[in-house]
Specification:
- With 221 residues, the protein is mainly alpha-helical.
- The protein has helices at residues 10-30, 33-38, 40-57, 74-81, 83-101, 107-132, 137-163, 166-172, 178-203; strands at 61-62, 68-69.
- The chain has a single domain (5-207), classed as Arp2/3 complex 21 kDa subunit ARPC3, CATH 1.10.1760.20.
- 71% of the residues lie in helices and 2% in strands.
- It has a two-stranded antiparallel sheet with strand order 1-2.
- Helix 3 packs antiparallel against helix 4 (74-81) and helix 4 runs parallel beside helix 9.
């Protein structure tokens, strides 16, 4: 998600930069870098997720005068890497994407809206699924994959539009239906991330953070 710095007030711009610095510092100290470097497969997963998001985020569209829109893919990355490592991977992808698109003045705002919010929403859904739903692969797939991705996409784009004056665009008619817009954004995000999570659960469940031996495959009747 690319937010134009000209659409942000100076207060919003520096607030986002300060908040992004605090979040990135906390995430960097939370990642087990030594453990990752000792595990080549973990390094490969981290690099694959970062590069995949760079490529995915380079394909964008713009609605009215709002931020650049694209498929996030953050839900799958969060479930593969964990929230802290996912924040670092998304930050790397955001920096590269923003620099190549000329939107480097609003890297912090774009990262907060398009990555930090989805990571927090996805991890929150994962915790809710683990605590309240049956330990079943279908609970994980639909709760952490499909539903979490839709909710994360809605939160990300709603947050971005609020940053750039979304209410003014809605009242002026530039964005006629915010609910319809969020549903339009959430459906492809849920479908793509849900399918990816399903494939990972079927073929390599050990790569998913939070999907452990407590989850049992549903027995046939």
């Amino acid at each position: 998600m690319q937010i134009d710095a000209e659409s942000l007030s100076l207060v919003w711009l520096w607030t986002c930069r300060l908040l992004a610095l605090l979040v990135a510092t906390r995430a960097a100290f939370s990642v087990d870098w030594r453990g990752m470097l000792r595990d080549p497969s973990a390094v490969h997963r981290f690099a694959a997720c970062a590069v995949s998001m760079m490529v995915l985020w380079s394909i964008q569209a713009t609605v009215a005068q709002g931020p650049g829109l694209h498929i996030l893919g953050v839900t799958t990355v969060t479930l593969v890497l964990g929230p802290a490592t996912a924040l670092i991977a998304t930050l790397m992808a955001e920096i590269v994407t923003s620099l190549t698109s000329g939107a480097d003045n609003a890297i912090a705002a774009s990262w907060l809206a398009g990555s930090v919010l989805p990571v927090l929403v996805t991890d929150g859904c994962r915790r809710v699924v683990r605590r309240w739903l049956p330990r079943d692969p279908f609970s994980f797939i639909f709760g952490c994959g499909f539903f979490a991705a839709a909710l994360a996409a809605g939160a990300a784009h709603l947050g971005a539009f609020l940053m750039v004056g979304g209410p003014d665009q809605i009242w002026s008619g530039a964005v006629p239906s915010v609910v319809g817009f969020l549903l339009l954004i959430a459906f492809p995000e849920a479908f793509i991330n849900g399918c990816l999570v399903t494939l990972l659960i079927v073929y390599c469940p050990e790569r998913m953070v939070g999907y452990d031996a407590d989850y049992e495959r549903r027995r046939r009747l």
